[in-house]
Each structure stands twice: as structure tokens, then as C-alpha cells.
Amino acid sequence: xxxxxxxxxxxxxxxxxxxxxxxxxxxxxxxxxxxxxxxxxxxxxxxxxxxxxxxxxxxxxxxxxxxxxxxxxxxxxxxxxxxxxxxxxxxxxxxxxxxxxxxxxxxxxxxxxxxxxxxxxxxxxxxxxxxxxxxxxxxxxxxxxxxxxxxxxxxxxxxxxxxxxxxxxxxxxxxxxxxxxxxxxxxxxxxxxxxxxxxxxxxxxxxxxxxxxxxxxxxxxxxxxxxxxxxxxxxxxxxxxxxxxxxxxxxxxxxx
Amino acid sequence: xxxxxxxxxxxxxxxxxxxxxxxxxxxxxxxxxxxxxxxxxxxxxxxxxxxxxxxxxxxxxxxxxxxxxxxxxxxxxxxxxxxxxxxxxxxxxxxxxxxxxxxxxxxxxxxxxxxxxxxxxxxxxxxxxxxxxxxxxxxxxxxxxxxxxxxxxxxxxxxxxxxxxxxxxxxxxxxxxxxxxxxxxxxxxxxxxxxxxxxxxxxxxxxxxxxxxxxxxxxxxxxxxxxxxxxxxxxxxxxxxxxxxxxxxxxxxxxxxxxxxxxxx
Lengths: 256, 265
Ligand SMILES: Nc1ncnc2c1ncn2[C@@H]1O[C@H](COP(=O)(O)OP(=O)(O)O)[C@@H](O)[C@H]1O
Ligand SMILES: [Mg+2]
Description:
Radius of gyration of chain A: 19 Å
CATH topology of the largest domain in chain A: Rossmann fold
Keywords (chain A): ATP-binding, Nucleotide-binding, Transport
Domain ABC transporter (chain A): 2-239
GO molecular function, one term (chain A): ATP binding
Bound molecules: adenosine-5'-diphosphate, magnesium ion
Number of domains of chain B: 2
Strand content of chain A: 15-25%
Helix content of chain A: 40-55%
Pfam families (chain A): ABC_tran (PF00005)
Largest interface: A-B, 23 and 15 residues
Strand order of the largest sheet of chain A: 6-7-8-3-9-10
Shape of chain A: globular
Oligomer: heterodimer
Strand content of chain B: under 5%
InterPro entries (chain A): AAA+_ATPase (IPR003593), ABC_transporter-like_ATP-bd (IPR003439), P-loop_NTPase (IPR027417)
Distance between the termini of chain A: 38 Å
Shape of chain B: globular
Number of domains of chain A: 2
């Protein structure tokens, strides 16, 4: 479980996160949604320890990040997996090497053990064996995302962070990736946080939803409530497309 | 005059702010240097990175360095020969002049400027691309010291740079020899006698001290500009240009300072 209390982050004079508090539970996929520029990535990078917030605390199963020593921070980092928006695969390495990389860095496993584990997770994300020796530049966007997920989970993380995991993917592939993340979260009992601006994701996998607006938590709740809420900012975001507006209309009529 | 200059400086606020920015960059640069040697990456991983960098930065540059050295050596010889028309000046001076200019200046400095362009922009653009595609974030998330991981192997690879410069020195002198042979300006014997004339071993030491300093600059300045860049593909291009400009400026300045310190005593 991750608990965030009153998180503030600025760059130069720009106050980006203005006091965010929330919790994310283990074994669940929580979604952080909001418009582009609302501070989702900055929030996630604070949770990852890539940015250090000026104010506020983040605790990981009771361990408060800012109170840990350097070594303890490194240990905690080793428990985190991250899927970056653009996959961020190392383009000088093959797909298999990318997935083996965290193991090479942080475990004392033999090469064959590492290979076995990498093959296992690549299989778990449904990547064909023929593709293992391709370079990231030779892989499609969907494939790159799968590899990024495989790399994030290869070292059995307790916390998984995904920054817009389905941006740039077609709706079908996006859904496959979303479901994959959710399955893995439940299977390995991981605390998963996904940044998204995609309503399909919200409907598919959002077990908890945090809505950010201008660096503040505007709303949080369950997937069902996100479609029922009266909060204008949320409905404005959720029903931005005509299709969703119609869906809402039907939904409301049904309820009456 | 001095007062006018002071007033000019005083009111040139934009300039002062810009120079504060430079100061900030210089500070950040030295912090990066410190970071190169902290929290080292596992040796088994680092070993491979170093070999890759030797391949990319050193082996990959030999071709162009050999080509340039050979022909510029030839040109220096031809020009010297054509300018020495007076019959009282011995022809051996051509070989002597070629050797001196190749060893003292051409191989260490001129080739380093070329390398600042070739190797430097390669370093800035590869590290910069890793920055904009979040690969550096990916390293840091894993708790890896990204500066050590990325810059240290380049630093070690460039410690082989004096080897490149030795080749440049050798081929420059051979290029002069070839020019004599094909152009017939001076006899080969005279050229070779000239090359061996009045040899001062300290000149080689001086050249290699410069080379080591330039290697350090070529490894670190482009890395700095790549590592701390922000933006997208366009900014990667801009960062490569800026890094080339500053690497060459620093090479030229340190060349001046080192020459003053080492040769004018
Ligand atoms: N490293 C940084 N330095 C300065 N400003 C930043 C940095 N990262 C993000 N920002 C700013 O923070 C704001 C929120 O960005 P971001 O979190 O990327 O939004 P989102 O992910 O929701 O689209 C933007 O205005 C952006 O310009
Ligand atoms: Mg973002």
C-alpha cells in the first residue's frame, strides 16, 4: 500500500503539485486520470523517487521514503517497476537483454537462470520467442509496451507504476495491455498505479480512480462512481466525447 | 576608459544574468564529474560497456583520423618545401618543420577538434536521446547511478585516446614522406634526416599531457550537454551543436594555458 500525504512539487517558480493526499491499495490497479499537463507524470515520478517533493510524505507499506537511508532507498527502488510512456527500452540492447537487465544489475543469478526468468515473463506478456532477439527499434509499439511491462515485473516488484501505458496504441491493443497489467497486479499482489487519460482504461481496469486537475486532487472514488458523480470537472473530463455523452444519457435514463 | 568599461559591465544586466547561468552550468558540470566516480555499476556490466565504448569512440575514429593525418602531413610538407626557396636554408628543414608542427600542434590539437565534432556530437546525441526517451529515468528508477553508467565507460575508453594521437603523429610524418616521394620537393634522405634533427623528448611529453586533458574534455563536456538536456529531437540537435562549440572552446583555451605553462619555462 502506498500512502501519499500533502504532496507539493515545484519547478523553479511553477507550483505543479499543490498538496495531494491519497492511498493506493495492494493487489489493485489504481488509475490517476486528468488532462494533459495536470501533473500526472510529475506525481508518478515523485512516487518513484525521481523527483523529490518539497513538502509532504510518501510511505510504502509503512516506510516513509524521505526518512530512509541511501541504502534503504536503493532497496526500496529495487521493489519498484516502471512502465514509461514511451516504453524507454534501452535501444542498444535486444528485447531479451532489456528484460534481463534488472536481473543482471541486482541479482547474483547465473546467466541461464536470468534467461529462464526473462523468457518466463516475456511469455507471460505474450511475446513470441522469435521476437526475443529483435532490437526495440524493430518492434511495434504494442510489442515495445509488452517488453516494457516484462522488464518492469521481471524482478518481482511490489509496486508497479505505468505512465500512460496505452498512449499511441490502437484501442484493441490498448485494452490488451490494460488487461495484462491488471491480471499481473492481481496475480502477484502488486500495488499498481497507472496514469491515464483514456476513458476505456477507466472502464476496463480502474479499481480506484484519482482525478487530478491543475495539480490538485479534484476527486477520487470507484469506477462506478466516476460515471455517476456530479463533480463538474470530472464529468467534463469523462464525457468529453459525444459517444460518452450518449452513454451517460442512456445510463441516466436507465436509472430513472 | 576603465571607468567606461566598468559602467558598461555594471549596466549590462542581461550579460550578468547570463554569466550567472554559465556559473550554474560550471557548478553542475563539476558535480557531474564527482558523480562519475560514485556508486559504481557492477563490474560485469561495466566491462561490457567499456568495450562497447572503445569500439564506438576509439576504433570507430581511427579511419577518419588516419585519413586526415596522412593528407594534412603531406600538405604541411609541400607548403614548407615551397616556401623555402632560399638556397642557404638546408632542405632538411622541411622534415624538421613537418615533425614539429605535427607533433606539437596538428596531431594533439587539430585532431582533438575533429574528435570534438565526431565523438563529441555522438556522445551528446546518444545520451540526449536517452534523456528524451526516458531511458535515463529508467536507469535511475532502477537505482542505478546513470552518470556513472553512461559517462564512466566513455571516460575509460578515451584514456586510449593518446593511442589515436600517436597514430596521427606517425601518419602525419609518413604523409610528409609520401609527399616528398611523389612531389619530389626534397629527397627522402633529407626529409628523414630532418625528421630526426634536434629532437626534444619533452615535446612528446607535452603533446601527450595535452592529449590526456583534451580526452577528458571530449569525454565529459558532451556527456554533460547530453545528460542535462530537456525537450525533444530538435533539442538533441541543438545540444550537440552547443556541446561541440564548448568542447572546442575549452580545448583551444586549455591548449593555450598548457602551452604557456609547459613550454615557456
Ligand atoms: N522536469 C520538469 N521541469 C519543469 N517543469 C516540468 C518538468 N516536468 C514537468 N513539468 C511541468 O509540469 C506540468 C505537468 O506536467 P506533467 O506531469 O508531465 O503532465 P501530464 O503527465 O499530466 O500530462 C507541465 O506544465 C510541465 O511543463
Ligand atoms: Mg504525462
